[in-house]
TrEMBL record:
Broadest EC class assigned to this enzyme: oxidoreductase
The entry's keywords: Antioxidant, Disulfide bond, Oxidoreductase, Peroxidase, Redox-active center
EC numbers on record: 1.11.1.24
InterPro entries assigned: AhpC/TSA, Peroxiredoxin_AhpC-typ, Peroxiredoxin_BCP/PrxQ, Thioredoxin-like_sf, Thioredoxin_domain
Domain of life: Bacteria
Catalytic activity: a hydroperoxide + [thioredoxin]-dithiol = an alcohol + [thioredoxin]-disulfide + H2O
The name this protein goes by in its record: thioredoxin-dependent peroxiredoxin
Organism from which the protein derives: Pseudomonas lactucae
Coiled-coil spans in chain: none
UniProt record similarity statement: Belongs to the peroxiredoxin family. BCP/PrxQ subfamily.
Complex formation: Monomer.
Length: 157
């Protein structure tokens, strides 16, 4: 079942960079931003990741951990993370289990061809594991600032 605003997010585990296994339950007590993006090292995904990188200290100050998710391999993520100096981990979702949980696989079109791809989306989960806000069909400019403002407001609530 897909995530729902104001409901707890089902715990999940997934492989992440730095040899880590991501577990949502292990992050209780901290807010969590999970952003889904289509593909490592592509222009929009790089710009979005750089935005989260550049605001990372502000997210940490708001008791918020940031994680990126795509269907790329851990090896691809390691290269992308190193090249962009991302201070946060990237989660590999090759089997699309996390994408399905957050309902981000959508029918897309490119050059007239339809395919199933990741809809750029971001989710803000509170310190108790409850989904508080979601952004779907994200346009990159200004997005990270909006997520940061929401994380800061939630941290003060």
């Amino acid at each position: 079942m897909a995530v729902v605003i104001d409901k707890p997010v089902t715990d999940f585990e997934a492989q992440a960079t730095s040899g880590q296994t991501f577990s949502l339950d292990a992050l209780k007590g901290k807010q969590v931003v999970i952003y889904f993006y289509p593909k490592d090292s592509t222009p929009g995904c790089t710009t979005e990741g750089q935005g989260f990188r550049d605001q990372y200290a502000a997210f940490k100050a708001a008791n918020t951990e940031v994680f990126g998710v795509s269907r790329d391999s851990v090896k691809s993520h390691e290269n992308f993370k190193a090249k962009q100096a991302f201070p946060f981990e990237l989660i590999s979702d090759k089997d699309e289990a996390v994408c399905q949980l957050f309902d981000v696989i959508k029918l897309k079109k490119l050059y007239g061809k339809e395919y199933l791809g990741v809809d750029r989306s971001t989710f803000l989960i509170d310190s108790q594991g409850v989904l508080r806000q979601e952004w779907r069909g994200v346009k990159v400019p200004g997005h990270v600032d909006a997520v940061l403002a929401a994380a800061q407001a939630l941290n003060k609530a």
